[in-house]
């Protein structure tokens, strides 16, 4: 179709296949996996849909030009040549960000500045008026990506990172990123067909993302704004149609989502965030110390949590992680327990053999996402059944 164009969805390391699957299920065409990104083809309506519905995307970019660069002047000259009046009014506002993988160009801020200069000079020289910079709410957000000698100029369709869902007003000292939380739940294979627990829930991010996955609620319905809403071709009727279509695909959830935290302030924050997201009918949050709890009933339980790494909390990590293992082994039979940590030494103290171990990054910290299977009764008896 002639109205289709290429887009690139950026994601976190290790989530590329999850994102490709999400895009395919949404109806994207020509889906191709890269490193920390997935490219695809769709139309304007699909661009709106991708921003609203993708759980593991950080940004959706729309590439508009690619060229070879050897010197800084190449960047300026090529940017200057582009028809910027197709995207921006002379009196408009812009912001530029750059990501660079190059031995020649090493300063992303300098490249962003060079790009801005070329655009501003072009407008000033052709119209006598120049756009101004607005880093918070620009009319046009531009992304420059240099990979060795290849420079790609893209329009940022999202604006703020898509992990900023809009439901979180209260956070604790080490909140987990919403995209990371959603990706972990998807990677763990939970599909809403059993009870779910986060026993160290902090500000409730994992609980909220789990509830949205269970009910198939689009994650970004509560965002205040996407960058494309400031574009000249913004189509509010089309956007509302896409929203309605996505909302018509939500589903019922017949299990429980439970959160514990031993900090009263965390429980308050988590409760507030889940309520902001209009998910409180699906989520129960209690003030409990996980190490003093046990599983109720014989139903299968899916547990997923982000325990402290010792980066910002002053606790004895080895004892803490040993207690995690002991509590799971003694009090949580019939549970698939997943946890993410960057404290690889403390992880050895859990004392359980993981059935899966996946390398991921939490912010810049290299981490492991591990799964422990707690059987009902002994493992031997399980195998004989």
TrEMBL record:
Organism classification: Bacteria, Pseudomonadati, Bacteroidota, Flavobacteriia, Flavobacteriales
GO molecular function, one term: rRNA (guanine-N7-)-methyltransferase activity
Coiled-coil regions listed in the entry: none
InterPro entries the record matches: RlmKL-like_Mtase, RlmL_1st, SAM-dependent_MTases_sf, THUMP_dom
Domain of life: Bacteria
Domain THUMP: 46-157
Annotated Gene3D superfamilies: 3.30.2130.30, Vaccinia Virus protein VP39 (3.40.50.150)
Entry EC number(s): 2.1.1.-
Top class in the EC scheme: transferase
Protein name: N6-adenine-specific DNA methylase
Keywords attached to this entry: Methyltransferase, RNA-binding, Transferase
PANTHER family attached to this UniProt entry: RIBOSOMAL RNA LARGE SUBUNIT METHYLTRANSFERASE K/L, RIBOSOMAL RNA LARGE SUBUNIT METHYLTRANSFERASE K_L
Native source organism of the sequence: Formosa algae
